[in-house]
Amino acid sequence: MRFMVIVKANKDSEAGVLPSAELLAAMGKYNEELVKAGVLLSGEGLQPSSKGARIRFGANDRTVIDGPFSETKELVAGFWLFQVKSREEAIEWIKRAPFEEGAEVEIRQVFEAEDFAPVDPTGELRDNEAKLRAQVQAKK
Amino acid sequence: MIASDTHRTINAVWRIESPRLIAGLARIVRDVGLAEELAQDALVAALEQWPTSGIPDNPGAWLMGTAKHRAIDSLRRNKRIERKHEEIGHQIEAERELTVPDIEAAIDDDVGDDLLRLVFTSCHPVLSTEARVALTLRLLGGLTTEEIARAFLVPEPTVAQRIVRAKRTLAEAKVPFEVPRGPELAERVSSVLAVIYLIFNEGYSATAGDDWMRPGLCEDAMRLGRILAGLMPDQPEVHGLMSLMEIQASRLGARVGPSGEPIRLLDQNRARWNHMLIRRGLAALARAEELGGALGAYALQAAIAAVHARAKTADETDWARMAGLYAQLAQVTPSPVVELNRAVAVSMAFGPAEGLAIVDALMQEASLERYHLLPSVRGDFLEKLGRLDEARAEFERAASLTRNARERDLLLERAAATTRSK
């Protein structure tokens, strides 16, 4: 099973303060451990929300709201994608991360294709969604 | 925390820690079987104590510490036995008296080399293939005997027996706990890769039962492959195998239809392929090629898989390149199965008659006599050439040979279709 590991933003990450050399080195070592254990599929750090935007969908219009966004604790500062055997294993790996005091990390299980089987007995929804994804991929 | 939660956490810690634990211990006690028993003892201690005492802050260190103490006890016991032997005149290689700090320091050394030693020991040629698979999943994958039994659809005692026998074989053959060097290395790496790919294939195309695949085993194999790539980053074939597995696994979500029927590669909805895995696979293939391994057996198979992965639709498949890659693969690892695949690529690139010529040359091949894909492919060519009666006979023969129930249905369906299209 796969888990998305969501690293929550804080004042520093939102202010664009880069992590200390020590933390970067520790993170590098931790990432290496994840890779060596065959657990890490991907991961990225995100720029502050001041460089982002939100698009709100109205009845017939789309409104663009520029960052930064105020609810710091709800924002995402980075993510990993883990391949593990169980939720507990994902938690065990996270506990080993060298985050500093006050950091908060959320883990969420990723849907796999087979998880949709009960609500989509014919597979039609999946096909439609897959077609959409194909269009998105094609535009990249 | 209720006990079962604690147990699940202990299992997770075990999966993470046990390979390093066993590898570190094996270097000290020079016996993989004993090392695993010591690690298991630590696990049992955790299962006894943690539900009441709570899970320690650093569970890995706790297991490590507990296992170390057992290792030291066991070494001391052995020392006593050795002294007894010496008393009765046995020639014993005098080892220096190990102190506790020595052992602690030794176990805490860089574990990469130990893990690699464990990999080569688990896949040692003195063991049967089944034993290699069971031991690798158990010692390096951190799977329980029960999990291995479930994955391979065999009774748990059978797997337990295999592991016990494998450990005994290693001890009796006095297999040294080391990484092979020189000319032996390449051959031994191949043996390790073969074990990992076998595990992957068992998951990718379930050979028995009604399941078309068991993705859990694919994940286990890929994790083992990633670990190996971390341990041996300069071995091109490790990256070749990784690439092959990632690209094949990218299709897992597209290989089965809504009612569980298999969907052939060319009929799959490519939007359902996992593009992250494809990207990872292509990167691993590039790495293998950079290291000069383009002509490795796994790298070539990965390159073939990559031809499919790069084509946005089935119609865009570069069949001529594919036929060329299969011709290269036939040079490196000549086999009737490779030839059969080459026939398919050739037929797609240059027409079914060309493909049929290759397949007909394989009809006398004894090793393919019971191989369902030969009549299945031949039936496909004959159908395209309009020779429907012959095609139907081939599809029916293929259906009678396959061990997979879903595949059988698909083949009988194709046989019936030849009658309808007349």
TrEMBL record, chain A:
This is YciI family protein. InterPro entries: Dimeric_a/b-barrel, YCII. Belongs to the YciI family. It comes from the Bacteria. Gene3D superfamilies: Dimeric alpha+beta barrel. Residues 1-112 form the YCII-related domain. It comes from Pendulispora brunnea. Pfam families: YCII. The lineage of its organism: Bacteria, Pseudomonadati, Myxococcota, Myxococcia, Myxococcales.
UniProtKB/TrEMBL annotation, chain B:
Residues 121-170 form the RNA polymerase sigma factor 70 region 4 type domain. InterPro entries: DUF6596 (IPR046531), RNA_pol_sigma-70_dom (IPR014284), RNA_pol_sigma70_r2 (IPR007627), RNA_pol_sigma70_r4_t2 (IPR013249), RNA_pol_sigma_r2 (IPR013325), RNA_pol_sigma_r3/r4-like (IPR013324), WH-like_DNA-bd_sf (IPR036388). Signal peptide: none annotated. Pfam families: DUF6596, Sigma70_r2, Sigma70_r4_2. Residues 19-80 form the RNA polymerase sigma-70 region domain. Residues 188-288 form the DUF6596 domain. This is RNA polymerase sigma factor. It comes from Pendulispora brunnea.
